[in-house]
Amino acid sequence: xxxxxxxxxxxxxxxxxxxxxxxxxxxxxxxxxxxxxxxxxxxxxxxxxxxxxxxxxxxxxxxxxxxxxxxxxxxxxxxxxxxxxxxxxxxxxxx
Length: 95
Description:
The chain is mainly beta. 0% of the residues lie in helices and 56% in strands.
């Protein structure tokens, strides 16, 4: 799967790319008042770029230049921009 093919909703399959931007993890409160950790960044492949959100345990694991694989991620939209995260059933790992 390629970034240019991603549509809002669940992503089935595998997406490979390189992290080209990554912010430091920060703490946020979810809508239920639970503290969570998030790090935002950008993933790139040969078809384009997409914003990524890495949550909790994944938030501090990845850096600029890491080549990663997303499996069964979740594509959402925030302020008119597509975003990719692992969601409930997905995972991200270094290649």
